[in-house]
Amino acid sequence: MNSAPVAPATASLDDPFYYLTNFRYVVSWVNARHHDLLSATERDAIGHFETLPQASQALLVRMVMRKGELFRLDKLSYAEIGDTEQALVPLVALGWVDRAPQLTSRELFRLLRLSELRQALADEIANAGLARNSTKAALQAAVEEKPLQAPAPLQQWWPAATTQVVRLTVMAFCDRLRLMFFGNLRQDWAEFVLTELGLQRFEQVPLTAESRAFQSREEVTTYLTLHRLRERLDDGELPQTLSTQVLPASSNRWLASRRARLLLTMGREAERGGDSELALTLYADANNSDARIRRLRVLERLGRYSDAYKLTISALDAQPHEGEIQALMRLLPRLARKLGQKVERSDRAEQQAAQALTYVLHLPGPQPVERAVAEALATPTAPVYYVENSLLTGLFGLLFWPVIFKPLPGAFFHPFHSGPADLYREDFVPQRQADINACLAQLDDGRYKETILRTWHAKQGIASPFVHWGIVSEELLALALKCLPPAHLRACFMRLLDDLKHNRAGLPDLIQLMPDAPPREPRYKMIEVKGPGDRLQDNQRRWIDFFCRHSMPVEVCHVRWQPAPEPEEIKKEESKQKKSKQEDAE
DNA sequence: ACCATGCACGCACGG
DNA sequence: CCTTCAAGCG
DNA sequence: CCGTGCGTGCATCGCTTGAAG
Ligand SMILES: [Mn+2]
Ligand SMILES: [Mn+2]
């Protein structure tokens, strides 16, 4: 394989220009791997950048790393750069910095502090009859109330201004660079620093020279466009305006699903604003499972039961995942009843198949419920751990480490991956089936224990989508391996692999480990704790159903707080569980 | 694994 | 005066 | 009562600083 080890990517923080070194690393990385995705202008820009004086490069990068693209010169001051004005000159000459940018009122309010705004907007304040001591928000509301506040330079908003404001005009390009490098926009320049500080560590996956997140410029642009729309939505722009600007779905499945998620949140905003019809359109267009469910609930709320019923039936027909089935099966009887159909009792009973042992604990409180139950149940020989998803996913992540970090093309493309880019995509498992089988085989022949422990030591602290190092201690790990039978692990791991995205959560709060239990007895049990008024979530029910079907020990513990401070008296009473034939049979 | 995701909590509805 | 919050930073 | 839906709050390095109220 044409792979090279990843060179240490992050600059030492002893270097006063460490951030510039990091930025240049990204630029040259993109230049090397995404050259064909850059426009001629962008290639020129990179060339120009490299010829700039160091201070100017550094100032540019300082601005890029900060929030927004507008900066007050009195707030742009860096020891290692020295004279800001001087560093600015070449940037202004290239047109990368605008020395007298037009400012909207919003921008003005972000740049000036309240005392300055009171001076700048003295007339407006007087005209609007605002109190002298009104808040920034009130002032802003009053100013934005006025029709057509045209953007203007600072000097026009506030002739007496003593500071200047500049606009970095190349922020969009720098976002594009960052996007091409990381394959997302959630990671940023701080990634380098946090890594250098040792606050995060990443697996070193060998990358081929060709590995990259995007295959065409259009893909990058699509991502950026969707992202901008999302930002504007978060910024309060109306879904009615924004929805018209959403491009048709990309043929790239990843981008298509990002688009669907944008439409979903736009739909929610439309709903919040009372525009159900727009919401319905957006949900229909999005057509991912969340959007399908939302669409049905809107239709139900609007009383369009027949439409909803038909869509429910077709959704059930279109390979819904378990979580979607749960929601659909809750909807179906309601809709059927509204349509005058008879709903049989068995329909409902069927979906709640297995029922776990459920009981009530009366504990002194209130206090954190999971802690309280853990303490109440723990004994010296049977400790209780508050692990939620961390233990099972952790064991999974450790055993399947080489699967998760297998250097497949497209899965890893920069040095800061906590997991493969395709982890939650359809073909993650098939792409790695042989390796997965090899890991599963270790559960059959017993090698898994050693592998898991060895990996725990070898990969300690390295970011993984499944291993939360803070919770899976060596002690817990050793005990868990002693107590959880491999057959049970295998079943859980298969379920995880079945749908990593939806099955990685919902595991019970607590696990009690009983290493000294007699041979035939179970050596562990899982307990989902529910405080007063809490109830099982869908994903929790799915896991509990699964545990029951596979005869794995799981309980649901409801907590009631004792009114009187009588801490010694803990009552454990069996509550009548809704019986199901399955349960009694086993 | 992204102002997100996973969890608990609290209120409202309708049966 | 306090306290609270976001930004900047390494 | 029950089962539902739905909105909310909480938490992500940890420190310093400046603005707001
Ligand atoms: Mn929990
Ligand atoms: Mn719980």
TrEMBL record:
Record EC number: 3.1.4.1
UniProt-annotated stretches for the region Disordered: 565-586
Keyword terms, alphabetized: Hydrolase, Magnesium, Manganese, Metal-binding, Nuclease
Biased composition (Basic and acidic residues): 568-586
Enzymatic reactions: Hydrolytically removes 5'-nucleotides successively from the 3'-hydroxy termini of 3'-hydroxy-terminated oligonucleotides
Gene Ontology molecular function, alphabetical: metal ion binding; nucleic acid binding; phosphodiesterase I activity
Domain (VRR-NUC) ranges: 443-561
Pfam families listed in its UniProt record: FAN1_HTH, VRR_NUC
GO annotation (BP), single: interstrand cross-link repair
Full protein name: phosphodiesterase I
Organism: Halomonas qinghailakensis
